[in-house]
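[09:14] KT: can someone run the structure on this one? pasting the chain below
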Amino acid sequence: MSLPDRSFVAVSPEVFYSNGAFLAVTRRDVDVLKSAALASSRRRARLCFHSSPEDSQQEMLIVMHRDSYVCPHRHFTKVETLAIVEGTCEALLFDASGHLVERVPMTPPSDGGAFFYRMPPDQFHSLHFCSEWVVFIETTIGPFSPAASESAPWAPPESDPTAGATFLATAMGSLS
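[09:31] RB: done, structure tokens below
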């Protein structure tokens, strides 16, 4: 699948890279990402505004379906920012042993809630999707390296979204 009228490169069914030139995203682009997310086993898709994983600035438009599961994880040395464009979710913060310590409802700015966060390094975090779709901008510094992050050893892997949903529901029930 390719995004219309653009020079994007699909590097997987759910990841697209731009050519690094000027980019203005439209509703049509978001709709195409949603279609890609529906076709993806993980129910997500992203458009990387940067042109390669080696770029020093990593900026992505990410589309997640309600059925997607983000395994709690942490970045060892990098800060991550997230800004909500569409939909609602909760940012979930965990301690190192897997206990949920904070839930932050996230909404678009027009809804009056928190719409932006800055996640510090070494903080286990995840997202719980409340609406059918959540669209957000995420940024971090590059280059991208899987070794710079760790999935929580106490949480189900992303390959098991059913167990992940159960895990998050149980964790959220413990912090009511």
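[09:33] KT: thanks! The mean pLDDT is 93.
[09:34] RB: yep, looked fine to me
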